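On clarity, I found the account of how folds are encoded harder to follow than it need be. Since the whole study asks how a given chain folds, the encoding of that fold should be made plain. For illustration, here is how one protein appears when written out as sequence plus structure tokens:
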Amino acid sequence: MLSCRVTTFLTLSTNNKVVACPVRGAASLHLKNTVSPATALPDFSANDGLLPAIAQDAETGEVLMLAYMNAESFARTQATGEAHYYSRSRRRLWRKGEESGHTQQVQAIFVDCDGDTILLRVTQRGAACHEGYRSCFFRELDGSAVNVVGQRVFDPQEVYQQSERKMTS
């Protein structure tokens, strides 16, 4: 977690719940005269407050994964500089790498023109995919054939068994 003095807060409202979180690098939220702050922020008012969030390698441009964010995970990502998402299956927030150690350091955050999709440019530590690949997009469709085009970076059984052992210890 980053240690810094923060005087600016990002406040987002979703489902009658307001989330206020200190903003890391508040100067990065300075908007030029081309857009208003209200339209530049993600709109969490639809789709049960969840927006798709694309993680992209900041250096290479490779798409690493797609996950979902709610207002709280977005604010936490802003505050810590590490990617946080909302798990639809577990119904809770999670920090990328909390089990595997394969974290995402956020370099930049973009919001699309409709405010309904988030793009995180990240520095990926380890693999992004829970199946052990650097990118979740390691399968290429070629007609009716499916080709694995990525290389495994780690064995998921080893990594996730270790995290289960840590949780039960």
Q: What stands out?
A: The chain is about 15% helix and 35% strand. The CA atoms of residues 50 and 164 lie 28 Å apart. Confidence is low (pLDDT under 50) at residues 1-31.
